[in-house]
Automatic annotation (TrEMBL):
Biological role stated in the UniProt entry: DNA repair enzyme involved in the repair of deaminated bases. Selectively cleaves double-stranded DNA at the second phosphodiester bond 3' to a deoxyinosine leaving behind the intact lesion on the nicked DNA.
Pfam families: Endonuclease_5 (PF04493)
Catalysed transformations (reactions): Endonucleolytic cleavage at apurinic or apyrimidinic sites to products with a 5'-phosphate
Protein name: Endonuclease V
Cited InterPro entries: Endonuclease-V
UniProt keyword terms in alphabetical order: Cytoplasm, DNA damage, DNA repair, Endonuclease, Hydrolase, Magnesium, Metal-binding, Nuclease
Length: 242
DNA sequence: GCGACAG
DNA sequence: ATCTTGTCGC
């Protein structure tokens, strides 16, 4: 598929201030609402691996529980990881992989934050806006924001706790940015799984983002397309190291 | 100076 | 994320 808005391509050569300003522009362009009603959607999971100084991006496309396509791309890493600027480190590789994808996805699930971000423009939002594609951010840890009235831990399976904007986020404090979603939990009290932090990327509201993430979990913590992309990226990274 | 910090 | 051994639990 094509990058609809080239002006939003993440350029690692920008200054930090320019990156942050582009993120504010992306956040203004992003739509954090929508219920995503689609019959038999093509859903892609996106993940990366980093063998040596390269970024390997992997996309797995699924429809009705079946894998229909895989795509990937490899680029050289040019900047280090900086909290809040992740999309400028990994985005070029991800967009290159999307340009290799032949099918037309209806939704993308990313491994990282969407609206849960200092400038409301995390990886899922940046990519979703650049591609003009509905997207959801699925993170394994919380970048910013705070849980609203969390119940006792450990959260039981199916629990959803709102993530509210705190003073680190450039938006009215208390705004619902996403949800902590306990997609999987053990029953006994021995081991315990952390929740996912799910937020809108583009064209979905926070509740819909949480529902979409949950709906794609098949007995595992991560949504199936993301699990598959994670696995695929790992395979490609192993080959790249050889 | 101290704490926070997606992947 | 990546570098790595063992260990716990079903």
């Amino acid at each position: 598929m094509e990058v609809v808005y080239p002006k939003f391509r993440p350029d690692p050569g920008l200054s930090r201030a320019e990156m942050e300003e582009l993120q504010r522009e992306i956040a203004r362009e992003a739509v954090f609402e929508g219920r995503f009603e689609c019959d038999s959607p093509v859903v892609v999971g996106v993940d990366q691996a980093f063998p040596d100084e390269q970024a390997v991006s992997a996309i797995v496309a699924m429809r009705d529980g079946e894998v229909i396509e895989r795509a990937s791309a490899v680029t050289e890493l040019s900047i280090p990881y900086i909290p809040g600027l992740l999309s400028f480190r990994e985005g070029e590789s991800i967009l290159a992989a999307f340009e290799e994808l032949e099918c037309e996805p209806d939704l993308a699930l990313f491994d990282g934050s969407g609206r849960i971000h200092y400038r409301q423009a995390g990886l899922a939002t940046h990519m979703g806006v650049a591609l003009d594609l509905p997207s959801v951010g699925v993170a394994k840890s919380l970048l910013c924001g705070r849980l609203s009235n969390p119940p006792e831990e450990p959260f039981s399976e199916g629990t959803r706790v709102p993530i509210l904007a705190d003073d680190r986020v450039e938006v009215e404090e208390g705004t619902v940015l996403g949800y902590a979603v306990q997609t999987r939990q053990y029953e006994g009290g021995s081991r315990y799984i952390n929740p996912l932090y799910v937020s809108p990327g583009h064209r979905v509201d926070p509740e819909t983002a949480a529902s979409l993430a949950q709906a794609h979990c098949e007995g595992y913590k991560l949504p199936e397309p993301v699990r598959r992309a994670d696995s695929y990226a790992g395979e490609l990274a192993d080959e790249a190291r050889q």
